[in-house]
Structures are given as C-alpha cells and as structure tokens.
Design goal:
The protein is built from eight helices and two strands. The chain is an all-alpha fold and 215 residues long. The chain has one domain: Arp2/3 complex 21 kDa subunit ARPC3 (Orthogonal Bundle), CATH 1.10.1760.20. The protein has a two-stranded antiparallel sheet with strand order 1-2. α3 crosses α7 (157-185), α4 (76-94) packs antiparallel against α5 and α5 packs antiparallel against α6. The two termini are 40 Å apart.
C-alpha cells in the first residue's frame, strides 16, 4: 500500500513541471521579433479585413486595440515602439499621410504603458476600461492631428458616430484581445524578470509557487 502515494506524488510533480512556463526573456532579440510579427499580422488584418467591414457605420479597429494591450502589458517603451511600427505600416499601405498614425500611436502606446507600469493592474475589468478610454483617446488624437495637417477636413456627425461606435465595439473585444496578446507576449513580459529575482531571493523554497500565472 505504501508505493501508491509515492507514485501519485511523482505524477503531480511531473504535471507541475509540464505546465511551468519557460523563461524566454533572456533571449534579447525575441521581444522585438514577437512585437514585429504581432504588428505585421494585426496591420494586415486591419488593412485587408477590418477596414472594409462596417457595422451600422461603425468599424472594428483591431490595430488600436492591440496597441493598447501591448502598452498595458509590455510597458511604455514597447508600446511606443510597437505603435511607431504599426502606424508606419498602416500609413504606408493605405496611402494616408505618412507618420500621422505613427505619431498618434506612439503617444497612445507610451501613455497606456506608463499607466500599466505605475498601477500594475490586476483586475480583469482593466482591459475593458483601457479599451474604452484608450480607443476614444487614440481616435480623437488622430482626428485632431488630421484637422491640423489637412485644412479640408471638417468635423461632421458621421465622424463623431464612427469614433463613438468604434469605441463601443472595441470595448466588447477588449478582454479577448487582451488575453490573446498576453499569451503571445508572455515570455517577454516584465513579470518574467520579477520571477527570476524572486527565485534568487528565495532559492531554498519550492519554485512551484513562484510560477507566472496568466491573470
């Protein structure tokens, strides 16, 4: 009868080792590669699919929503860099004023990154709140920059409806997009470095309680 508890304990240990997340943050080029691939995929989806789909005059802005989640999760520097590259891609392919989206995306990504860095949000409601206010602020900022650079642009009820409607749609998609982006960026998130510091400080303890958990 004694070997059975030992076998079950060893099975639990093996299962715990299997679900432990690998520590990839020491690979220097991987964070930029992950951000680049994510930006390329999101930019192509926005240009090819979502920019052509309108729902009662409203549009899904996956580019802005992904930018907000990258800034919230990865910090201000990664958010600004991701926004700059994604904005250049959108402006260059769509034929808009080159650098307009990049400027608004850089400011938005950095601001949201600072918010996530200072507050370190834990609640699942935070991505929804960031999706609502961040989308609205990013679209308004882009509109203001376009008004300043293009004198022929005028504020119209249709433009206001697009901003409000896009904000509402992005609010519904904020949590799923946040979870997908976090799963993709998890190996390069700052929590990985905090886990390594905790391991060094508590090296004698079991590492099972120090694993990173997807919030």
């Amino acid at each position: 009868m004694s070997p059975q508890p030992t076998v079950s304990r060893s099975r639990r240990q093996r299962r715990r080792r299997r679900v432990r997340l690998p520590d990839h943050s020491v690979i220097g080029a991987v964070p930029w590669l992950r951000l680049g691939l994510l930006g390329l995929l999101v930019g192509l989806l926005q240009l090819v699919l979502f920019s052509r789909v309108w729902i009662v005059g409203m549009q899904i802005d996956l580019a802005v929503l992904t930018l907000l989640m990258v800034g919230l999760l990865a910090g201000p520097i990664s958010g600004a860099a991701f926004g700059f590259g994604l904005g250049l891609l959108l402006d260059g392919v769509s034929g808009q004023t080159l650098g307009l989206s990049s400027l608004s995306f850089v400011l938005t990504g950095y601001a949201v990154g600072r918010l996530g860095q200072l507050r370190d949000p834990e609640s699942s409601a935070v991505p929804v709140v960031v999706g609502v206010f961040g989308t609205f602020a990013a679209l308004v900022l882009y509109g203001l920059l376009e008004l300043m650079l293009n004198q022929s642009t005028r504020v119209s009820p249709g433009m206001i409806w697009v901003i409000v409607g896009t904000t509402l749609i992005n609010a519904l998609l904020a949590l799923p997009v946040h979870n997908r982006v976090k799963r993709w960026l998890l190996p390069m998130l700052p929590e990985e470095a905090r886990r390594r510091r905790r391991r060094r400080a508590y090296g004698s303890r079991s590492t099972s309680d120090l694993d990173v958990r997807i919030r």
